[in-house]
Amino acid sequence: MKGSVGDRTFQAVNGLLLALIALVTIFPIYYVVVVSFTAPSEYLRKDLVLFPEQWSLESYRYLLSSAAFPRALGVSAFLAVVGTACSLVITSSLAYALSRKRMEGRRFILLMILFTILFSPGIIPNYILIRELHLLNSLWAVILVSLTTGWFVILMKGFFDSIPESLDEAAAIDGCNDISTFFRIVLPLSMPAIAAFGLFFAVSYWNQYFNAMLYLNAPDKWPIQVLLQNMLVDASGSALASETMRQPPPSETLKMAAVVIAIVPIMLVYPFLQKHFAKGAMVGSVKG
């Protein structure tokens, strides 16, 4: 059926606006990637590079030849892998326990978790806690303060509520205790939730900046985001020390290359979790 003139006009204007919004959104990413692959001589010669005449990997070679940048990537990878694993274990186990009505003190613990959502202790109490635990300048301090949130626990509890407790009873008849039931029965049925929350935690740990700045003083323990911030502040690019190249590329191409390297790992992880992510993103939001 053909629409009226007004409908066709609306569709055309709507499509044009969406195309403009998409262009405005995509262009900064395109510009970052293009500048990172632009030859230093061409970048210094031109005021604006939209499509380089000469492609170059010099900025990437300089970054990866330095000692600081690969080390920062390793720190971020450690936080993302180990932190995500710890957060998933803590969040899922607590949410599973709270989803079972037979747990004593369940209502009180839920109220305490809701209280943490409404009221945050703030930066100073957290810093004092980390200091008293002698975890300052330790990567475990960043992981500890980011283990979980009350909101994530409540959401995952909603998912576990949909798993009938009769499965627990059947597992108990077969000789499983609560821990065995959780790891052998419940978790395999919870892959959509695990994938969704795993992606949330991984992105959060990979992008750790403020907590790392607060608790990590040694430059050799800085994650990639802290190193990027220092590169952006340091216009000369001397935040990196490279022994293999005497003359560094322009600082702008270095910054763009560093941004590209920092975002690629998360972009590569998402396709592997996409199968579960769509379902897991709605976890706990609808309860039948």
Automatic annotation (TrEMBL):
It is a multi-pass membrane protein. It comes from the Bacteria. PROSITE patterns: ABC_TM1 (PS50928). The chain crosses the membrane at residues 12-33, 72-96, 108-128, 140-160, 181-206, 254-273. One of its GO terms (biological process) is transmembrane transport. InterPro entries: MetI-like, MetI-like_sf. Coiled coil: none annotated. Keywords: Cell membrane, Membrane, Transmembrane, Transmembrane helix, Transport. It is found in: Cell membrane. GO terms for cellular component: plasma membrane. Residues 73-273 form the ABC transmembrane type-1 domain. Belongs to the binding-protein-dependent transport system permease family. This is Carbohydrate ABC transporter permease. It comes from Paenibacillus sabuli. The lineage of its organism: Bacteria, Bacillati, Bacillota, Bacilli, Bacillales.
